[in-house]
Write a structure and sequence with these properties.
Elements: H1 2-34, E1 57-58, E2 62-63, E3 105-108, E4 111-112, E5 115-116, E6 120-123, E7 126-135, E8 149-153, E9 156-158, E10 160-164, E11 170-177, H2 182-191, E12 204-211, E13 213-222, H3 227-234, E14 257-258, E15 261-262, H4 288-299, E16 307-314, H5 325-334, E17 338-343, H6 352-355, H7 369-376, E18 380-382, H8 386-401, E19 404-409, E20 420-426, E21 431-434, E22 438-439
Parallel strand pairs: 11-12, 11-16, 16-17, 17-18
Antiparallel strand pairs: 1-2, 3-6, 4-5, 7-19, 7-21, 8-9, 8-20, 10-19, 12-13, 14-15, 20-22
Helix pairs in contact: 2-8, 4-5, 5-7
Length: 447
């Protein structure tokens, strides 16, 4: 009996196992039927070659021939090893360039890989001349064309290669005289607030001042920024109060003695300032040359496509500078910098301003601004009140922005550093032409 029960239990176990395996097989088949097939990833394709280039391009070396695959590279797919048809070659004809004389040009023919570029000719003797034309009443004359101008360099006619009436951005350096009398300095301080109104957002300005030595208040900054009016307010000064000097008599005696001598021998009678009967009066110091030179050095680093100019607000007095007027003028002519000025004080008075141009030996120069203006092709206005000073700032900015720009190729050798004269003539009656009378060639032009 027990054997029969064991046999029945064994058969039941075997039957249950068979049914379970059959159910699992059926379930796996259903799942396999419900699951969608996942497509294979796309086969990697070779990159399309650039037009006219069959090989690779290496930075610094250019296009090279097609590289051969490595010997141990056995994993490349059949699609990647198929050759790619090269596009048709495009033949570009190189323009013919007329070569001027060898001493006036610099030729360059660079090569990139196996491809040669076209030959470019760079002129290194180009001269640019800004010109201002006014009528007999001082108004700007507009509407002139290239045919109305003729330029002569060293008394030789040179044809114009460039003629433009487009306004250029200004790089202007303001030089303010702080050694003016107190009443004149007060007027200059009031007029400084209107300088920013004459400039545009494309202009840039720097501020310098001088009395006994030059000082830079700020380097070039945006003309319509907040820094410029703040610096102009800091550059305002009290000026000086000239008095009648007394160097002899009872009023010039020493008021304070120490051990039988004056306290300050440099200002009181005796010692190095004189003797016991008179006092040597210290001389006035007006370092105008040094201030213009410092502003010119800052301007010389500005881009060539900007109009470089120095605007001086002073009476023109000069004494005590380390640089001479001729040295500074040559530096201005070499770096294409024009000097404009608003003359104030005694030099702005009618008649007296003309007499100030005459210099007595061993004395101070009363006005040398007209020399800088004439040597650089700038302009000068003599103003005696605040309203006219403000108008002169606007006139100078308008004049510099509406100039005619002439350009020509110099016939002189690039190795000649001598001074070259320029004569600009206009085919119009009763006009006044203002341009630089000449220039010194600079090595910067040959870069």
């Amino acid at each position: 009996m027990e054997d029969e029960i064991a046999v029945n239990v064994g058969w039941r176990v075997i039957a249950s196992a068979a049914l379970l395996s059959a159910g699992l097989a059926l379930a796996s088949g259903v799942v396999a039927q419900q699951q969608t097939a996942v497509p294979d990833a796309p086969t990697p394709q070779a990159p399309t070659a650039l037009p006219g280039v069959n090989g690779t391009i290496t930075p610094g070396l250019g296009a090279t021939s097609a590289a051969t695959p490595a010997a141990n590279n056995t994993t490349a797919t059949p699609a990647a090893t198929q050759p790619v048809a090269a596009p048709p070659k495009v033949v570009v004809s190189q323009p013919s360039v007329v070569q001027p004389q060898k001493e006036d040009t610099q030729e360059a023919q660079p090569e990139i890989g196996n491809a040669a570029l076209a030959k470019f000719v760079v002129q290194v003797n180009f001269v640019q001349v800004p010109v201002t034309v006014k009528d007999a009443k001082g108004n700007l004359v507009a509407g002139l064309t290239q045919r109305d101008f003729k330029v002569y360099e060293n008394n030789t006619y040179v044809p114009l290669r460039v003629f433009s009436v487009d306004p250029e951005a200004l790089s202007i350096a303001f030089v303010i005289d702080q050694s003016l009398p107190s009443n004149v300095m007060r007027q200059v301080n009031e007029s400084l607030d209107s300088i920013q109104g004459a400039l545009t957002p494309y202009d840039e300005a720097a501020v310098f001042s001088y009395a006994n030595g030059a000082k830079e208040w700020t380097t070039f900054t945006g003309a319509q920024g907040q820094r410029l009016p703040a610096v102009l307010s800091l550059a305002k000064a009290l000026g000086s109060d000239p008095m009648i000097p007394i160097n002899s008599g009872p009023m010039a005696g020493c008021s304070i003695y120490q051990n039988g001598n004056c306290v300050d021998p440099n200002l009181q009678p005796g010692k190095s300032a004189g003797n016991g009967s008179f006092m040597t009066i210290p001389k006035e110091i007006h370092t105008l040359n040094d201030a213009i030179l410092q502003a010119a050095k800052e301007l010389s680093s500005r881009p060539k496509d900007r109009r470089r100019m120095i605007f001086v607000i002073s009476d023109g007095k000069e004494y005590g500078s380390k640089a001479s007027e001729k040295e500074v003028a040559r530096y201005l002519q070499t770096n294409k910098i024009a000097v404009y000025a608003t003359v104030v004080g005694d030099s702005a008075r009618w008649g007296e301003g003309w007499l100030d141009r005459f210099h007595l030996p061993f004395t101070m120069y009363d006005n040398i601004l007209y020399k800088y203006v004439a040597a650089t092709g700038g302009d000068m206005y003599a103003e005696g009140n605040v309203n006219n000073m403000e108008k002169s700032y606007a006139k100078v900015a308008e004049e510099a922005r509406t100039q005619y720009t002439l350009g020509y190729l110099s016939h002189e050798s690039i190795y000649d550093s001598k001074y070259r004269t320029i004569d600009v003539r206009v085919n119009r009656p009763n006009v006044v032409v203002t341009a630089k009378p000449g220039y010194y060639p600079s090595a910067q032009d040959y870069k």
